[in-house]
Each structure stands twice: as C-alpha cells, then as structure tokens.
Amino acid sequence: MDDDNLPPEDDQNDSYYDNVASNRTNNNRRCNRALALAVVAVAAHRLNSRRQPQPMHNSIPTGSMRVEELLNGHEEIIQGMISMKAETFRSLSNLLASRGLLNTTRYLNVNEQLFIFLSICARGETNRHISYLFQHSVETTSRWFYKVLQVIAR
Fold it and tell me: Cross-referenced Pfam families, in alphabetical order (predicted)?
C-alpha cells in the first residue's frame, strides 16, 4: 500500500482532518460561486435574447386595397372567396350604401365591411384569418361582421 495517502499518525491527525474540512469548504464555496455566476449568465442571456415585439398588422396593402385588388382581379378568385361575382358584389354594396344601411367609416369602407361579412359566411373563414387578411384587429372584424349581419337580417 501507498503510505502517502494515509492520514498521519497521532498529533497530526487533528490538523490533517481540519485541513481536509477546510479544503472541502473552499471547494464548496468555489462551486457555489461558479453556480451563481452560471445562473446570472443564463438570466442575462435570456433577457438580452428576448424577441422584440413586432406589429401584427404591418402589411403594405390595407384591407380596402386588398378588396379593390380582388374586385378588379380574376373572376374565379373573387367568386371563390365570397361566392358571388364582382359585379353582383358591387351592386349589393351600392344598394346597402345608397339606402344608408352601411356607411363608410374612418377605417372601413362599405366594400370592406361587406367583404369581411361575405368571406366569413361564404367560406367559413375564421375571424383571426380575416383580421390578418384585412389588417384589422379581431375585435374590429367581429364588430363589423355582426353589424353587417344585423343589416342583412332586417
């Protein structure tokens, strides 16, 4: 056996064990400091790497621009979206506007209000998808859907 790894005899026993205990305490302190530094580093990294909020509705074409693009586009596309021809849509929109049942507001014109309603009814689109498509909040698209529904149901 190797005598160097054995604790010394007699008087030196107490000082040897005190030294071992002291080394363990120092090692524990170093480990605790390293662990604390690691936790701080991870927390700092998470704070710095958080995704910055981005606007949800940031598309260049507005809802009314999108409606006009669809109304002036290919007939099959508009018919697929709202189950009617562009000519029929324009006639219905003009009728509702001329009777004062739907009015252009600051944010939505009559065509857009009607298109939101028909998109949801004809295709079963979700409110969230329509709000994305027309660049309005979910609350706005919901409000206008119900307003047009009340007008149509009269």
Answer: DUF8040
Q: Is residue 56 part of a domain?
A: no
Q: Is residue 108 over pLDDT 80?
A: yes
Mean per-residue pLDDT for 3-16?
A: 58
On whether both 91 and 32 belong to a single domain, the answer is: no
Location of structure tokens 């507005």 = 62
* Overall number of domains in the chain: 2
Contact 72, 85 (CB under 8 A): no
Collapsed DSSP state (helix, strand, coil) of residue 84: coil
Average pLDDT value for the chain: 81
Burial of 68 (0-12, 13-18, 19+ CB in 10 A): middle
